[in-house]
Amino acid sequence: MEMIVRALLLLAAAVVLGGCGGKDDEVPAASTTTPAPTLEGATTEPASWKGASTETELLTDVRAARHPGYDRVVFEFRSGVPGYDVRYVEPPVRADGSGAEVAVTGGAVLRVRMEPALDADLTQESAPRTYIGPARFSPETAAVVEIVRTGGFEAVLTWAIGIDAKRPFLVTRLDGPARIVIDISTT
Questions:
Q1: Would you call 179 exposed, middle or buried from its count of C-beta atoms within 10 A (0-12, 13-18, 19+)?
Q2: Residue 145 falls inside a structural domain
Q3: Which of 140, 160, 141 shows the shortest CA–CA distance to 150?
Q4: Is 85 a member of any domain?
Q5: Which of 42, 24, 56 is closest to 175 using CA atoms?
Q6: Which residues of 138-168 are buried (b: 16+ CB within 10 A; e: fewer)?
Q7: How many domains does the chain have?
Q8: For position 36, what pLDDT does the model report?
């Protein structure tokens, strides 16, 4: 009996420890007994933060993943989190600088404006790109249809997230690495 109790305790500890850590865009294992979490504090209202740094933050990665109850979009930066303004906008979406129309697939568009931020290091002679991923992609997610870069002009970096419909979202700032995380409800 004591061996069974020990085995169960070890199994429980492994399950608890296995649920800790991990990257913010990893898809957790599906559970048939646990309901999808709700995003406490999520809203369709704009979310903004002025930022703490005057240095231009450099984008290094953009990714998205499906999670139970929400899709997560992550903007990762080299050293710090820039200020941001995340809000729903009416189409047409316009490119920074030129004002050209940018097509974004989806029933609603969430604009992510980050400042001061860029995806190229202008302090270097050749201004190398710090984000080398796609400027437009469709992740394998439930609500997020498409993610599109719509501009990088005068230390303002803008992306648009095409969503199947207007849904509540929640924005979080994280460090280690520096990133802006946008969770979009799918429930």
A1: buried
A2: yes
A3: 160
A4: yes
A5: 24
A6: ebebbbbbbbbbbbbeebbbbbbbbbbeebb
A7: 1
A8: 62
Strand partners, 184: 71, 169
Rounded CA Rg of the chain: 19
pTM: 0.82
Token pair of 63 as six digits: 């990714």
Average pLDDT score over the chain: 85
**Mean pLDDT value of segment 50-68:** 94
Chain-centroid distance of CA 166 in Å reads 16
Beta bridge partners of residue 172, listed in sequence order = 181
Residue-number span of the structural domain to which 156 is assigned = 44-185
Residue 88 falls inside a structural domain: yes
- Let me know if residue 92 belongs to a domain: yes
CATH code assigned at 56: 2.60.40.3500
34-38 own/partner pairs: CB under 8 Å, 24+ apart: 34/68, 36/68, 36/69, 36/70, 36/186, 36/187, 37/68, 37/69, 37/70, 38/69, 38/185, 38/187
The pLDDT score that the predictor gives to residue 35 is 59
Chain-centroid distance of CA 98 in Å reads 25
> What are 120-169's pLDDT values in tens digits?
999 999 999 999 999 999 999 999 999 999 999 999 999 999 999 999 99
Q: Are 183 and 168 in contact (CB under 8 A)?
A: no
Structure tokens at 20: 């800790």
